[in-house]
Amino acid sequence: MKKSNNIYLMYIIAFLQGFVFYGSVATLYRQSRGISINEIFILESVFMILMILFEIPWGHFADKLGYKKTLVVSNILFLLSKVIFYKSNSFLMFFLEAVIAALAISGISGCDTALIYSSINKEESEKTFGRYNAFTTAGLLLASLLSGVIISKSMDFAALLTIVPYIIAALLTLFIEEVKVNFEEKVSIRSSIKNALSNRNMVIFVLSISIINEVTHAISVFLNQPQYVKGGINIRYFGLIMTAMQIISLISVKAYKLTRRYGTYKVIKNLLGIIALSSLLLSYTSSGILSVIFIALINASFAMINPISMDIQNKSIVTSDRASILSIYAMVGNLSSALVNFSLGKVAQSSIEHAFVYCGIISIASLIVITAYFKKVAEQLSS
Predict the structure, then answer these.
(1) What total of structural domains would you count in the chain?
(2) CB 3.0-4.6 Å disulfide test: which of 39, 59, 160, 261 passes with 324?
(3) Is residue 183 part of a domain?
(4) What totals of helices (H) and strands (E) does the chain contain, helices first?
(5) Helix (H, G, I), strand (E, B), or coil: what is residue 252?
């Protein structure tokens, strides 16, 4: 099998794992199983903390034994997490699902992009990462189109049906070809940590992007549904709204064209500004239409930021322990995300209006830090 076939397999796996049929009612599904909004944020914080603990060991495992083995084990665990999610009816069961999902996603995190980056022409990396994200979005899109019919039967059926594409995705992982990236060159975890943290500018960049990622995730997954209800939108339209969000997010596939034309800094700065402003405006509106527009802007903006961020992180790595370093960056990001998520859950318990204001404030803070990062990089290049 040609190494380039890895890209197509990863595209298909990403597409299938986007088939989360319960996505448009994920918060309502958990609440129907007896989980409060605060408990949802607690579980998300637990998930983030576990991701922090698992990231570095998984990355080290991937660099020592290979990307394929890591992805096979991780995708099987991902499948198991969906089975447990369907069976969960208590906080303890959802806690177990969070543990297994954290194990799975921390294994995939970094390893998937390391495999892709090692299988392509480096000049095509940003475009390829954009397509990779777009395939996940396309899966979510198709799932959203079908979810209205599926959820009308029951939310439980939507959770059950989600298991099927994850079975296929796990099986497809077996056909990935391992890439040759000096796995025989043993790099210790300590050395990988030193390599990663020595690039302080990149650590700052990762922290800021992770905060924005958590803001986007919280708004588009947890806070959106109560906001839609507040705006008088009937639950039967949630699937259609999610479909529209995924269509808009497909814009990520063209992010590389923006950076080539306007430059990476200018693109990221403006996209972060859109996220911050939209978050603040959400706190002041009770209009269903405006709520959908602002959340769509947030989704579209981060969809374009994500492949740019992947490209920047991969190009910053010059050592052979790519998966380990990407996992360390992910761990650093998850740490900041966990802190944001925990504090956001407390604020959201007060009111979703306060939660949106909080999201706007920390987005502005991230914008300031990102601006400082690019200035530092520019100074280093000119010196």
Answers:
(1) 1
(2) 59
(3) no
(4) 17, 0
(5) helix
Neighbouring C-beta atoms of residue 4, cutoff 10 Å: 11
Alpha-carbon distance of 75 to 103, in angstroms, equals: 10
Taking the C-alpha atoms of residue 188 and residue 319, their distance in angstroms, rounded to an integer, is 12
Q: Does residue 135 contact residue 81 with C-beta atoms inside 8 Å? A: no
What is the rounded end-to-end Cα distance, in angstroms, of the chain? 45
CA dist 129 and 212 (Å) reads: 18
Distance between CA atoms of residues 179 and 121, nearest Å = 14
243 alpha-carbon distance from chain centroid: 18
pLDDT greater than 90 at residue 342: no
Dihedral angle sign, alpha carbons of residues 253, 255, 256, 260: positive
Q: What is the pLDDT of residues 156-189, one digit of tens each?
A: 999 999 999 999 999 999 999 988 765 555 667 7
Question: What gap in Å lies between CA 95 and CA 50, rounded to an integer?
Answer: 11
Q: Maximum CA pair distance of the chain?
A: 63
Question: What pLDDT score does 187 carry?
Answer: 64
Cβ(285)–Cβ(224) under 8 Å? no
pLDDT > 50? residue 307: yes
Residue 235 DSSP label: G
**The pLDDT of residue 1 is above 60:** no
Q: Of 191, 107, 201, 146, nearest to 18 (Cα)? A: 146
pLDDT tens for residues 358-382?
A: 999 999 999 999 999 998 887 776 6
pLDDT in tens, 231-267: 999 877 887 888 788 788 877 777 778 888 899 989 9
Closest of 129, 112, 51 to residue 310, by C-alpha: 129
Domain that holds residue 80: 5-177+188-382
Specify the DSSP class assigned to residue 318: -
CATH number, domain containing residue 298: 1.20.1250.20
- Higher-pLDDT residue of 198 and 190 is 198
